[in-house]
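Exercise 7b. Backbone tokens:
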């Protein structure tokens, strides 16, 4: 994907493990306008999201240092205007259950330097 491309990616999360939702292509950076967490399950689900250098985020890489409770059949947007470097990943984790989706929206830009 070249610079200027729109990012619209998502993944259904596998419970109790880190899930890589999106990886920024080499030579580019990503500016995320929204990370949408959607809980299609009939029960509340706790979710965490990170921008990480690998598939297993360090404690400092979690955007949500604690879990976000997402009510049953509801959604929660993160709209902080986050930037990620080439190779960085959006990684999400949910506790139990199924039917939790994380979608990322943004734009690719040429990496500085």
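Sequence design result:
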């Amino acid at each position: 994907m070249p610079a200027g491309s729109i990012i619209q990616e998502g993944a259904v999360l596998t419970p109790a493990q880190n899930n890589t939702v999106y990886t920024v292509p080499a030579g580019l950076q990503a500016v995320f306008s929204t990370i949408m967490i959607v809980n299609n399950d009939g029960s509340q689900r706790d979710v965490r999201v990170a921008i990480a250098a690998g598939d297993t985020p360090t404690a400092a890489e979690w955007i949500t240092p604690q879990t976000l409770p997402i009510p049953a059949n509801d959604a929660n947007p993160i709209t902080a205007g986050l930037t990620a470097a080439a190779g960085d990943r959006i990684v999400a984790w949910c506790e139990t259950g199924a039917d939790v989706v994380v979608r990322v929206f943004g734009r690719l830009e040429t990496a500085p330097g």
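Instructor comment: The first strand starts at residue 6 and ends at 12. The radius of gyration is 14 Å.
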